[in-house]
Design a protein that fits this description.
Layout lengths: L5 E6 L3 H12 L5 E4 L6 H6 L1 H12 L3 H7 L11 H26 L2 E3 L3 E5 L2 E4 L4 E9 L3 E3 L11 E2 H4 L8 E5 L3 H12 L3 E6 L10 H14 L2 E4 L3 E6 L10 E5 L4 E4 L1 E4 L3 E3 L32 E3 L10 H16 L13 E3 L4 E6 L2 H7 L2 E8 L2 H5 L6 E8 L5 E8 L2 H13 L4 H6 L19 E2 L1
Parallel strand pairs: 1-2, 1-6, 2-3, 6-17, 8-15, 9-10, 9-15, 10-11
Antiparallel strand pairs: 4-5, 5-6, 7-16, 12-13, 13-14, 18-19, 19-22, 20-21, 20-23, 21-22
Bound molecules: NADPH dihydro-nicotinamide-adenine-dinucleotide phosphate (NDP).
The site of NADPH dihydro-nicotinamide-adenine-dinucleotide phosphate has 24 residues, from α7 and β18.
Length: 459
């Protein structure tokens, strides 16, 4: 048998790669190395979920003095200090990166702070000039934001740049209608920036339940975001002599309006990081979006090369990448072939209000079988008392044949927290009657999920 330097070489130190490396080394006792050419923690920790969520928290304080006043408090309006926040944010990211490095070190994983490419089925070339061999290679390189292919696109920033802004812009145009566009529209608005959002389709958050995304869009507009659907950029050019990325931009929209924005953010999707990696040369097949094609065990066309996380473009969420990493270790190092379960994955869009979802949308379920829909929209007690126009939605999509809850959709503050728990019940196969048998927690918003008695629609 060939003698390799390592049992496993992981390329990429994000959530998926780090988890697979440390579990393979720590629990399975494998000899493991990992290469990362940027910061440890990857998209989630350094330029995604974590800093984004901290920005969500920062932005949510905006309305609090006005709401508190309705509850009898005398609170000054105050102002937001971006520089102070950014300093604390960077400190937190440094702390988390340190934890990621220590987790690897403590598990006995050898770290290479270098770019790694694949030379052949068992050989990795490092940017330091070294070459290493491994019995198994795991590619976990993630993805990166893409700009549309149009003149002057480089004037716009992408989500990676947001966390490094020197100052908050006065105005921003956000292009896109997905997770990132909608989340940053709400964050920027909360931080006091004038936000315009262009989405080319009919309604933002394509693929989510129609009723839920309609309510999110209404609430975003209600809060003051200038959300324009059926609209895209027709032309963009530098508004001043400054032509660097992030400089003010003059934009003409497809509906013919011209406006200058301090910043334009392209939140127009992400692409798998597969370029110049030696993948195709080594025999690894890439799909149409240049994602690595894998089977249910995350194995590529080359027996010794596996891939997990966003680079495979299955479900691009951190907890899914972590699951894929764990299943990979179980399959390869515990001789226990474990497919990744991608069914009924709960997720949340951290807009204001949040959208939490698990399972099928009403539209997907109705296309599959006869259904009943239970839904209620109402003004939540906390903000209704403060005369704010907030509305929330609780919704269950139920199979007529099996009575199983096929989908749950919640638009509400903290919907992300609620959907995690609804996700357990639905993953267990709960029926509508199981929800009905559960006593409400009163007074809460989520009690409505167990008190809806009559379907609002039936197909
Ligand atoms: P998405 O794919 O979700 O959204 C991209 C958006 O850009 C879509 O609205 C798309 O429109 C639009 N778009 C694409 N190309 C163009 C173009 N040329 N011109 C105008 N608009 C365009 O990508 P995101 O970048 O928002 O997020 C990537 C992934 O990251 C998500 O799918 C999700 O898996 C993950 N993520 C998860 C988060 C969470 O869990 N809270 C938060 C952030 C990201 P159309 O609908 O017409 O295709």
């Amino acid at each position: 048998m060939a003698d390799y330097d390592y049992d496993l070489f992981v390329i990429g130190g994000g959530s998926g790669g780090v988890r697979a490396a440390r579990v393979a080394a720590g629990e399975a006792g494998a000899k493991v190395a990992l290469a990362e050419d940027d910061r440890y923690g990857g998209t989630c920790v350094i330029r995604g979920c974590v800093p984004k969520k901290l920005m969500v928290f920062a932005s949510e304080f905006a309305h609090m003095p006005a709401t508190a006043a309705q509850y009898g408090w005398d609170m000054p309006e105050g102002t937001f200090d971006w520089t102070a926040f950014r300093g604390r944010l960077n400190g937190e990211l440094d702390r988390l990166e340190g934890i990621y490095k220590r987790l690897l070190d403590n598990a006995g994983v050898e770290r290479f702070d270098a770019r790694a490419t694949i030379k052949d089925a068992h050989t990795i070339a490092l940017s330091t000039g070294e070459e290493k061999t491994a019995k198994t290679i795991l590619v976990a390189t993630g993805g990166s934001p893409v700009r549309p292919d149009m003149p002057n696109a480089e004037l716009a920033i992408v989500s990676d740049d947001i966390f490094h802004l020197d100052a908050l812009p006065k105005s921003i145009l956000i292009v896109g209608g997905g997770f990132i566009a909608c989340e940053f529209a709400c964050i920027m608005h909360g931080l006091g920036v004038e936000v315009t959002q262009y989405y080319r389709g009919e309604q933002i958050l394509r693929g989510f339940d129609d009723e839920a995304r309609n309510l999110v869009a209404d609430q975003m507009r209600e809060r003051g975001i200038n959300l324009l659907v059926g609209t895209n950029i027709a032309e963009m050019s530098a508004a001043t002599d400054d032509t660097s990325t992030g400089a003010p931009v003059r934009v003409t929209s497809t509906s013919g309006e011209t406006q200058v924005f301090d910043k334009v953010l392209f939140a127009t999707g992400r692409a798998p990081a597969t370029s110049n990696m030696g993948l195709e040369e080594a025999g690894v097949a890439l799909g149409r979006g240049r994602e690595i094609v894998v089977n249910e065990y995350s194995r590529t066309d080359v027996d010794s090369i596996y891939a997990i996380g966003d680079v495979t473009n299955r479900i691009n969420l951190t907890p899914v990448a972590i699951r894929e990493g764990m299943a990979f270790v179980e399959t390869v190092f515990h001789d226990n072939p474990t497919p990744v379960d991608h069914d009924l994955v709960p997720s949340a869009v951290f807009t204001q209000p949040e959208l939490g979802t698990v399972g099928l949308s009403e539209e997907q379920a109705a296309a599959q079988e006869p259904i009943e829909v239970y839904a209620t929209t109402f003004r939540p007690m906390k903000t209704s008392f403060a005369d704010r126009p907030d509305k929330v939605l609780m919704k269950l999509v139920v199979s007529k044949a099996t009575r199983k809850v096929l989908g749950c959709h919640i638009v509400a503050p903290d919907a992300g927290e609620m959907i995690q728990l609804a996700g357990v019940a639905i993953k267990m196969g709960a029926t509508k009657e199981d929800f009905d048998r559960t006593v409400a927690v009163h007074p809460t918003m989520s009690e409505e999920i167990v008190t809806m008695r009559t379907p609002v629609r039936s197909t």
